[in-house]
Amino acid sequence: MLNMAAGLDRLGALATSPIVARLGAAFAEAGFELAIVGGPVRDALLGRPVNDLDFATNARPDETLRIVKPLASATWDIGRAFGTIGAKVPGPDGTFEQVEITTYRADSYDGVTRKPVVAFGDTLEGDLARRDFTVGAMALRLPVPALVDPTGGVEDLIGGVLRTPGDPDVSFGDDPLRMLRAARFAGQLGFDVAPDTVEAMARLRESIRIVSPERVQGELVKLLASDDPVRGIRLLVDTGLMAEIVPEVPALRLEIDEHHHHKDVYEHSLTVLRQAIDLEHERHPGEAPDVTLRLAALLHDIGKPATRTLEPGGGVSFHHHDLKGARMARKRLQALRFDSDTIGAVSQLIEQHLRFFGYSEGAWTDSAVRRYVRDAGDQLERLHILTRADVTTRNRRKAARLGAAYDDIERRIAELAAQEELDAIRPELDGNRIQEVLGIGPGREVGAAYRFLLDLRLDEGIIGPDAAEERLRAWWTARA
Q1: Which residues does the UniProt record annotate as the domain HD/PDEase (predicted)?
Q2: pLDDT > 70: what percent of the chain?
Q3: Which of 380, 438, 444 is nearest to 409 (CA)?
C-alpha cells in the first residue's frame, strides 16, 4: 500500500538533490518553469528506484540548451525536433546525472500513423494531460517542490489502478502502443487496469497493426522483464491484443471435449513461465531478468495446436510439437525483429525442451549425457531451468520423481565436466593428424573421420592418441 508521507519525503529529497536543485535554480533565474515529470515522480512515491530523470519546461529547445550548457559536461540535441535536449550534469561529489529536458507538448495525431504533429505547449497541466496514464501524469515543480497532479494520479497509485488521463479511445487512438504499455505497467507495478480502459483496448486492438514490429518487440521485452509478466500477458490475451502481435499464445487455449482430456495448454504455459522466473531468481539471485528464457517458457508449447491428434480411447497426442514449435517461434520472432542470437536461443530451447524426459524413464549412459550437454551448448543452464519449470503436474509423486531425476542428471553433468572439461570436448586427433594417419588430403573423408573420433570421445572418453590412431585405422579399413 502506498505510504503517502514517505513518498512525499522521497520527492522532497529528490527535489533538493544537488543536480536537480542546480537545474531548478538555473531555469528559475532565466525566467522559465522546470518540473520533474512522469515515471520518476511515480516511482519516488511508490518507493521504487528512480533512475533516469525526465524534465519538462516552458522554455523552447534553444533556450533550454542555452541554460544547461554552462552546467553540463556534455549536451546533445538529437531530439530537438521533438523539443528534447539531453545533458550530462556533474554533481559536487564527482558523480554525473544524465537528464532529458523537453518543452511542454501539445501534439496531435493523424489517426493513421503513430507519428505526432509536434506542437509545443505553454502549461505543465496541458503537457501532463496528454500522457499515457494518470500515474505517470504527475510532476514535481522546481525549485520550490510542489506536486502537480491534475488527473488523479495519486488516487490511482493508492488504488493500484491504471487508467488514461482522458477518454481511453482518444488516447489509444492517438497512439496504439499505449495499449501494450498498459500491459507492461500492469506487470511492472502489479496494478489492475480500469474497466473502461480494458474495454477500449479490446475495441481498438486492431489499431496496433500500425505500430512497427520493433516497437511492439520493445514493449514485449519490457513486459517479460517485469516482476509479473503473466498479469500483462493475460490482459493482452483477454483483450485480443495478443492475437494481433503473437497469435500463437492465445491459440494455446485449445478446446477440451468430454471424450478427450489433456492439460489446458495456455494455463500450463503461464505456469511454466512463472516457475521459470522463480527458478531464475533462485539459481541466479540479483541478476537481470533473462528475457530469452522467459520467451522460451512462454512459447515452448506453441507447436501443440498444430500437432494435436485425438487418439482412440480418449487420449491426446502432440507428436513432434517441439520441432514444430521451434519453427513457429523462429518465424514469429523474426517477424518481431528480434536479434539472431535471441531467435536462435529460443528456438533451440523449444526444440530441446523434451529431451530430458527420456532420462527420467531410464538412466542414460555417460555418452548420452555428454550428447545432451553438447547439443545444449551455451543454452544448457537455460535448458535446465526450462525443463524443471515444465513440470506442472499435480501428482506429487510424479513431480518428486522428475525432480530427483533432474537433480541426478545435473550431478552427472557436473562430474563429467570436472573429469573431462566437457565444455571443450574435441577429438583427440585434429584434421591435420587425421590426414597424416590415413594418408589422405582435405575432403569429405576427413570430416567423416573427425565425426567418428568425436563420437568415440563422447562414448568412451579420453583413450589417448595412440589408441585413437589405432581405432581410426580400423574404422578406415572397415569402410574400404
Answers
A1: 261-404
A2: 91
A3: 380
Q: Is the pLDDT of residue 249 over 50?
A: yes
Digit-coded pLDDT (tens) for 222-236? 999 999 999 999 999
- Strand runs (DSSP E) across 255-344, as ranges? 309-310, 316-317
Q: What is the DSSP string of 431-480?
A: HHHHHHHHT--SSHHHHHHHHHHHHHHHHH----HHHHHHHHHHHHHHH-
- Per-residue confidence (pLDDT) for residue 147, from 0 to 100: 95
pLDDT at residue 257 is higher than 50: no
Cα–Cα dist 474/388, whole Å: 43
- The angle at the Cα of 48, spanning 41 to 153, to the nearest 5 degrees, equals 40
Distance from chain centroid for Cα 169? 28
Average pLDDT over residues 149-157: 95
**Secondary element (H or E) of residue 140:** strand 139-142
**Closest listed residue to residue 57, CA positions, set 46, 68, 48, 72:** 68
Give CA–CA dist 202/427, Å, rounded.
Answer: 58
pLDDT at 255 over 60: no
Please, where are the H alpha helices in 193-290? 195-203, 213-224, 229-239, 241-245, 265-283
Query: What's the pLDDT score for residue 408?
Result: 87
Set of cell numbers at residue 90: 556533474
Which residue segments constitute the domains of the chain, with CATH numbers given? 1-159 (3.30.460.10), 160-245 (1.10.110.30), 260-424 (1.10.3210), 431-479 (no CATH)
